[in-house]
Write a structure and sequence with these properties.
heterodimer; A: about 400 residues; alpha+beta; Beta-Lactamase; Heat Shock Protein 90; 5-stranded antiparallel beta sheet; 5-stranded mixed beta sheet; 8 helices; 12 strands; rod-shaped; B: about 350 residues; 2 domains; 6-stranded mixed beta sheet; 7 helices
Chain lengths: ~400, ~350
């Protein structure tokens, strides 16, 4: 009776030692220690089945390490009796199958005792199996989570790389547009320089000046002086244009206080000539002149981009009496600039997508699909403002809102 | 393992007594001394115990001096770094003296035991003073050490017997909440309330009027094992809710509250001696070492001599008996796992 009570008590204690951790090695080691201590096992070992290598690996060992050499791997006993007497070492081995895994114990006791011990562990074997399964499932979940985390990190990195790529492409596209605008700005002064040079060449070739008389010499000097002044003035204009573009391209890391009207003027200094050549009239109406504290060059780029888009669509649709209306006004603490053209507007199905990257209605040669995407990024993420696109009765209308201050 | 075992009353006698060699000293706590002397060609390590045992008597003052045989080695090991100790492959016996108030006794002993060869036997004791405060109680010619252990290893065999004689008074109980050495709940109730109820039901002792340790040494706890004797855990203090025991206690351990008559304790000591001697002939026995718990000594009082006589009765007359009254006992009875006991008598038989 006392032995039965002891069996029950030991069973309770061993069952309580099951499932104390979701870490398999920790849980199994704790259980084996308690079970060995209570039943007098000399040593115990847990063999975990590795499904990848299809081999058994030792997960943990309790008791003296010196006993390790007596343990045989499961392949050598799994088809035999679960209790085995090793005559040479005078030891009993008890093997217990836990799903695909095995536990082996070494005892120095009697055959009767070992059978009773086997019945003790048999009474909670299924619980032990469930606990082992829970540990393995937990590990699997952790691995899945880790894989997910890794994938998320990879995707985030890919997005960062993509953003960098977009930025680079956008800069290249802007440079292309700038060069085109410089070409427009320079065409007229270069033509003038060329005309002045041709005039000098013409007059000297045809000997239009009489160098034999003082009057002729004076007239020649006057002509050349006048021509040189004109050339100097045109060269100065060209230099000024280059400075304008260079300043515009310089990344502006510091905010400055500026009015929207000033930003519009800076933009028109760059693109105005090109618009004029294409017969586009710009009408600017300034109803508010509060300063905003922002990245001026970046906002100028956005205005420039919208004007360039308007120019492209006006040319594409061959609009007669093309006009662009720029209105500056305020609403509460917002300074608002509206840029509206009379080119007929943006198709309704296109409108929701125009701020998406790589979205362009232009031919591949003319559009990167990044201009408005970058404009939205600049206004909303860098300048804490808003940019909207709508259709007015006559054309497309872009509204940029920036906080005063 | 040891030879030339003697007893001296004064530390100064070491100069006269010790010749070239390595010595283990068991020092009774009331022995007046400041440090160990430096003697040419002599290496010594010592440990302080409540009392020492020599030739059937216990002493509050004095030193048992044991010379290590050539086949033995001695090391001082930090108890938080048991991995620093490596036993030789031919080690057959280990005698360890640990710091009896270290919180790392169980882990240390298990770590040392795990790395021993298959058939190596392990016996040991907890050192310390009856002030029950952790102090540096391990020493050598150079220093005093706290939280350290002396490990003597030998290629010679040792017989070990472990018995306590305690019987279940009431139980079983489940230790439903434990934290290290603190037993917080028994059967989901405050541990002390269960303990108090059981003790006061069995005796006239009352916790309000009697110091806790005077009661607890008479009613220790026992951890139940299958087909084996209890592992005794003695409560040493309480805060009115929890019981603090000597040595760790696993949660959900099955416990009994124990009790013993004087005769049971003495009988158990004799059984330990008989088991320790085994089938050894008297001529093969060098000496016997007794590690007996201080609680048993205090509980038996004047009758403790009978316990030593009972142990001696298992051996031929004049067999040299030495040892210490200890704070915790260590032994592996067979080859199974090592245990740290309380309130137990451990007898080791050294062979020639």
């Amino acid at each position: 009776m006392q032995q039965l009570n002891e069996q029950l008590l030991i069973t309770f204690e061993c069952v309580s030692a099951i499932g104390t951790s979701l870490h398999l090695a920790e849980m199994v080691e704790h259980f084996l220690k308690i079970f060995s201590r209570k039943t007098g096992a000399l040593a115990s070992i847990y063999w975990e089945y590795d499904t990848k290598t299809q081999n058994y690996q030792q997960l943990c060992l309790t008791g003296k390490k010196a006993f390790q050499e007596l343990f045989m791997p499961p392949a050598s006993f799994m088809h035999d009796a679960l209790i085995h007497y090793d005559k040479a070492n005078d030891k009993y081995f008890l093997h217990v199958k836990i799903e695909e895994d095995w536990i082996s114990f070494i005892f120095q006791t009697s055959a009767v005792e070992i059978e009773l011990i086997q019945s003790i562990i048999g009474s909670f074997q299924s619980k032990l199996e469930n606990a082992v399964r829970a540990c393995k499932n937990h590990l699997e979940l952790i691995e899945i989570n880790q894989t997910l985390e890794r994938r998320v990190e990879e995707e985030v990195q890919k997005n960062r790389d993509k953003d960098q790529h977009i930025l680079q492409q956008s800069r290249l596209a802007q440079m292309g547009e700038m060069i085109s605008m410089i070409a427009h700005q320079w065409r007229q002064p270069l033509g003038s320089i060329s005309a002045v040079a041709a005039s000098i060449k013409f007059k000297t070739t045809l000997n239009r000046f009489d160098y034999t008389t003082p009057e002729g010499i004076d007239a020649s000097k006057l002509f050349l002086s006048d021509a040189m002044s004109k050339i100097e003035s045109y060269v100065q204009f060209l230099t000024h244009t280059i400075d304008d573009f260079r300043n515009f391209f310089k990344p502006n890391k510091q905010k400055e206080s500026v009015t929207l009207a000033q930003l519009v003027n800076r933009t028109l200094d760059i693109i105005g000539k090109a618009l004029e050549i294409n017969g586009i009239t710009i009408k600017v109406e300034t109803r508010a002149s509060h300063e905003i504290f922002t990245y001026a060059n970046e906002v100028t780029q956005v205005i420039l981009n919208i004007l360039k888009n308007a120019e492209d669509v006006i040319k594409e649709r061959e609009i007669a009496h093309a006009q662009i209306f720029i209105t500056i006004e305020n609403e509460d603490s917002w300074q608002i600039i509206s840029i509206e053209d009379n080119a007929g507007g943006i198709p309704e199905h296109v409108l929701p997508h125009i701020f998406e990257p790589y979205f362009s209605t232009k031919s591949e040669k003319n559009g990167s699909g990044l201009g408005l995407y970058m404009s939205k990024t600049i206004i909303e993420e860098h300048c804490d403002g808003e940019i909207l696109a709508t259709n007015s009765p006559i054309g497309a209308k872009f509204i940029i809102k920036l906080q005063e201050g | 393992m040891f030879e030339c075992i003697s007893f001296i009353e004064h530390i100064e006698s070491l100069h006269v007594k010790l010749k070239k060699g390595t010595y283990l000293l068991l020092i009774a706590e009331e022995t007046p001394f400041l440090d160990l002397p430096k003697i040419a060609d002599v290496r010594m390590c010592g440990a302080i115990f409540p009392r020492v045992i020599f030739e059937g008597k216990t002493y509050a003052k004095g030193i048992v001096v044991a010379k290590l045989k050539e086949s033995s080695t001695m090391h001082i090991v930090e108890m938080d770094a048991p991995q620093s100790y490596h036993a030789a492959k031919n080690t057959n016996a280990i005698f360890a003296i640990v710091d009896g108030f270290s919180s790392q006794i169980d882990d240390f002993v298990e770590a040392i035991y795990t790395n021993l060869p298959q058939n190596t036997k392990f016996i040991g004791s907890g050192s310390g003073k009856t002030s029950f405060i952790q102090e540096p109680v391990i020493l050598d010619n150079e220093h005093f050490y706290m939280n350290c252990a002396i490990i003597v290893a030998s290629s010679m065999s040792i017989g070990i017997g472990v018995k306590h004689g305690w019987k279940s008074l009431v139980g079983p109980f489940i230790a439903t909440q434990c934290n290290g050495t603190s037993l917080e709940k028994i059967n989901y109730k405050d541990a002390f309330s269960i303990y108090q109820e059981a003790v006061e039901k069995d005796s006239d002792l009352r916790f309000e009027t009697t110091p806790f340790f005077k009661i607890s040494r008479r009613y220790p706890l026992g951890i139940i094992r299958y087909n084996k004797d209890f592992v005794v855990r003695e409560p040493v203090r309480t805060d009115g809710k929890n019981l603090v025991v000597v040595g760790n206690l696993d949660e959900n351990s099955v416990l009994s509250i124990l009790k013993a008559d004087k005769e049971d304790l003495i009988q158990a000591a004799q059984e330990a001696a008989v088991h320790s001697r085994g089938v050894l002939e008297a001529s093969d026995i060098e000496s016997i070492i007794v590690i007996d718990c201080v609680s048993r000594y205090l509980l038996l009082g004047d009758d403790f001599g009978e316990e030593l006589q009972a142990i001696a009765s298992a051996y031929q007359k004049n067999t040299l008996m030495w040892g210490a009254i200890s704070l915790g006992e260590i032994a592996n009875t067979n080859q199974e796992s090592i245990e740290f006991y309380n309130n137990t008598c451990v007898v080791g038989t050294f062979q020639k």
